[in-house]
Design a protein that fits this description.
Elements: E1 7-12, E2 18-23, E3 27-31, E4 36-40, E5 51-55, E6 60-68, E7 72-79, E8 88-95, E9 106-115, E10 120-124, E11 137-140, E12 147-148, E13 187-191, E14 204-207, E15 214-215, E16 252-256, E17 264-265, E18 269-272, E19 279-280, E20 283-285, E21 319-323, E22 336-339, E23 346-347, E24 415-416, E25 421-422, H1 430-443, E26 447-448, E27 454-455, E28 462-463, H2 465-481, H3 494-500, E29 505-514, H4 521-529, H5 532-539, E30 545-552, E31 560-569
Helix pairs in contact: 2-3
């Protein structure tokens, strides 16, 4: 069949059938019949079928051999190997480059065989180049020794002369195409006295081959100086070194760079081809004695034009900072400065309530605007009596009344020591009653408190005004000073708070909770139930009294604070 044209570039070198074929990702179609087959050295391109199709996707180097069937002999190749006069043909096949992929299709390869009984003309091949002389032939069925199947040799006495041989400039028709030395022409060559590879345009000769001492170009401008030619570098020597018609061109202006910052001083320069030590090509330095000042430097807030743009301290936004003398993160309103970045020892805020003593939590238990760290007069209940001298510091009692003379003011004294009996002078609020009811309901059954153990049902608790006072004192302390801990301001403990409230105890426990989600008494109790140690306090059978209080503020982290105190009196 007729092959589709898919050979985009074919470089053919006949040497017992060697060809280099570039294929555009097409197929090699090998055709055979019963008269013979075609084998390949790798075996991957063997064909003994009527038609074999092979995709050529990568470079392949194969030697194909035409193998006649029994009773047949090889005559000639068809298709790719048609230039080979013998049974073997070497092909190097490779896909075309992507830019030539438009030349696609199939290429064919086949071999022609004939019966060994066929009588045909055989041509004398005296020079052994596999091509016979056309005027010396013998008709025979068997090939005589020294004869070839083709009679196209134009010089059977020279084995370098045969059809498709490479033509040489020797006055001989090497490829038997009827032409001599085709492809070779006379050319003009120029003398190269200095042997620099460039010729003198003034001295030339015509020849088909390059004469000794001559070159094919006439580009030299000084054929007596091997350093002067078009490929030479220009030098500062008053000569045209690179033959471009100019002398010492390429000189550049270099600027002195005394501080080594890569930028030179405008107005102080020299022109030279070669770089000079201490000089640079870029000008624009506005201070050549300071290597930190140059056109691309970062502008600093220092009253200097650091980047040489004619502006000073541009691009900075000034902010007011306040001195933090005690290092607690809060600044002094009376000691401020303006700067683009925060200086050491200064902060953005100015609300330190204790300027010279560290007060990192800004604790102010009496909320008088003076922090506890430096406040010598604290008055939590705002009754004008200092807490250290107040006989009831958490309850307003300006008259400091103490009817039983026990040192605990009547406003928070639940025990009348003169009668040696407990006197409950307070009444639980609706919310506190809900708290007591929720706790007693939980204590009414056996409970599993997780890691704290399983507790049997416990007796109901009674409300204690003294424990309520202790609970309120701690809830207020946590809310006003924005902390959450059993340890109160001044490192006070639950025992300290119960003692200040006048509750003499033999057993004591405390639960605390915080957060707006625990605003109701029931929610707070449920939160404690879910925590094993808090659950254990709720179920402890030794306790007989309960006091609880809630305190809220919008300025604290959690908003709502609960304290629950359990006790058993002495």
């Amino acid at each position: 069949m007729a092959a589709k044209h898919c050979i985009s570039a074919v470089a053919t070198r006949i040497c017992l059938g060697l060809m280099v074929i570039l294929l555009a990702s097409c197929r090699l179609i090998i055709s055979t019949d019963e008269t013979g087959g075609i084998l390949s050295t790798s075996g991957s391109l063997d064909c003994d079928q009527p038609t074999c199709e092979f995709e050529i996707e990568k470079r392949a180097n194969e030697v194909f051999t035409a193998v006649p069937a029994q009773g047949y002999r090889f005559v000639r190749w068809r298709g790719l190997c048609s230039n080979s006069p013998v049974e073997t043909c070497q092909l190097v096949m490779a896909p075309l480059p992507e830019q030539l992929s438009q030349f696609s299709g199939d290429v064919e390869l086949s071999a022609e065989f004939e019966s060994v009984e066929t009588v045909r003309p055989w041509y004398r091949d005296s020079d052994g180049d596999h091509y016979g002389a056309p005027n010396e032939s013998i008709l025979a069925a068997r090939r005589p020794q020294g004869f070839a199947v083709t009679g196209t040799d134009c010089n059977d006495g020279d084995k370098q002369v045969y059809p498709r041989a490479k033509e040489r400039e020797d006055g001989v028709d090497n490829n038997c195409n009827g032409e001599i030395d085709e492809g070779y022409v006379d050319a003009l060559y120029f003398i190269d006295e200095d042997e620099d590879g460039f010729g003198n345009p003034a001295v030339s000769k015509t020849a088909r081959r390059t004469p000794k001492g001559y070159v094919a170009n006439d580009l030299d401008c000084d054929d007596f100086d091997a350093l002067s030619h078009p490929a030479s570098d220009e030098r500062v020597d008053g000569r045209d070194n690179n033959c471009d018609g100019r002398v010492d061109e390429g000189g550049m202006e270099y600027y002195i760079d005394s501080d080594g910052d890569g930028f030179g001083l405008t107005g102080s320069s020299v022109i030279t081809i070669e770089p000079l030590v201490g000089y640079v090509l870029t000008a624009g330095d506005c201070d050549d004695g300071n290597q930190d000042i140059y056109p691309t430097a970062e502008e600093l807030f220092d009253s200097i034009d650091n980047d040489c743009d004619g502006l000073v301290d541009e691009g900075f936004t000034v902010v007011t900072y306040y001195r933090d003398v005690d290092g607690d993160g809060y600044g002094d309103l009376s000691d401020a400065l303006q700067a683009p970045e925060q200086p050491d020892g200064y902060v953005r805020n100015y609300n330190d309530n204790c300027v010279h003593l560290a007060n990192p939590n800004q604790q102010d238990i009496d909320r008088d605007g003076l922090g506890d760290a430096c406040d010598t007069f604290t008055d939590v209940d705002r009754d004008a009596v200092q807490d250290s001298a107040d006989n009831c510091p958490a309850r307003y009692n300006p008259d400091q009344s103490d009817i039983d003379g026990d040192g605990l003011g009547d406003a928070c004294d639940t025990v009348d020591d003169s009668a040696n009996t407990f006197t409950f002078t307070c009444s639980a609020s609706t919310e506190q009653q809900a708290m007591l009811a929720a706790v007693n309901d939980f204590r009414s059954q056996q409970r599993d408190c997780g890691a704290s153990g399983i507790f049997a049902a416990a007796p109901a608790l009674s409300w204690s005004c003294a424990l309520e006072e202790a609970a309120l004192l701690h809830a207020m302390d946590m809310a006003n000073n924005n902390f959450f801990s059993h340890t109160g301001t001044g490192s006070t403990s639950a025992a300290d708070r119960a003692g200040r409230a006048g509750y003499g105890w033999s057993a004591l426990g405390e639960n605390i909770a915080a957060g707006t989600a625990l605003s109701s008494a029931v929610a707070a109790v449920q939160g404690w139930i879910s925590s094993p140690p808090h659950c254990a306090n709720l179920m402890e059978p030794i306790f007989v009294h309960l006091g609880a209080a809630k305190y809220s503020t919008t300025t604290s982290a959690h908003g709502v604070y609960w304290t629950q105190v359990f006790g058993r009196p002495r």
